[in-house]
Amino acid sequence: MKIAVVGCGAVGSYYGAQLARAGHAVHFLLRSDYEAVRRQGVRIQSPEGQFQVHPHCARRPEEIGPADLVLIGLKTTANGQFPALLPPLVGPESAVLTLQNGLGNEEQLARLFPAAQILGGLCFVCLNRIAPGVIRHIGAAFRSGLRWFRWRALPRSSVGLLLHCRLALLWAAGHTPGRLLRLQKARRHLCAVQTEHSSTDCRAPGGRFSQETS
Length: 214
Fold this sequence. Notes:
The protein is of the alpha/beta class. It is built from six helices and eleven strands. The relative contact order is 0.17. It has one domain (2-213): Rossmann fold (3-Layer(aba) Sandwich). It has helices at 10-21, 34-40, 82-85, 105-110, 159-172, 183-197; strands at residues 2-6, 25-29, 42-45, 51-53, 56-58, 67-72, 90-98, 118-131, 134-137, 143-148, 211-213. It is globular and about 40 Å long. The two termini are 23 Å apart. Strands 1, 2, 3, 4, 5, 6, 7, 8, 9, 10 and 11 form an eleven-stranded mixed beta sheet that branches.
C-alpha cells in the first residue's frame, strides 16, 4: 500500500515508521527535517524495541502523487494548509485518515474531498520527537480506533480498504484491533484521560511533558 504522511512530527513519524516497517511504501512530506530524514531515515526508540526505517522523502506533495492512504498528523492549527497540501495526494481511490486532536477535522476535510473517502482516527500514545527523525516512544497505555466519517456514503467497494487500512495500522503498531467506539465519544473520553493525567504521566526523564495525542 502506498501511504503519504502529512505532518511528520512525533505521531506522524511514529505511525509512518511502523507502517514502513510492516512493508508498506511510505512517503514522508517534510520541511525542516527533510535533509536529516533523507540521510539517516527515521529512528524509533521504544521499550518495545528500537528500529530504523528509510521512508521516501519529499518536499512537495506533487513529488509523491496520489496515495492509497493519506495519513494526517498535522497540528490542527495548520488545517488551513489542507487545500495546498492534500489535493495532489488524494485520488478517487484514496482514503484520507486524520489522527489529529480535537473535533471538526473530518468536516474540514469533507469540504475538499468526498465524505466516503475520509476516516477519523484517534490514538493515545506517549511520544517525544527528540531530534530530527528521532522519536522516543515512552511506552504508555495504547488506545486506537478508526471510523469512516460518513458510513452511509461509503461505496461497497471501499469496505475492504477500511479493513485493510485499520488492520495494517494497528498490526504494524503491534496491537490487535478491538471494538470501535463512536469516534466523537472516544475523543471526548481521550481528552478527559489526558487532562486527568497531564500532571503526572508520560514525562521524559528530565520531567518535561512528553504526551502527544491524536
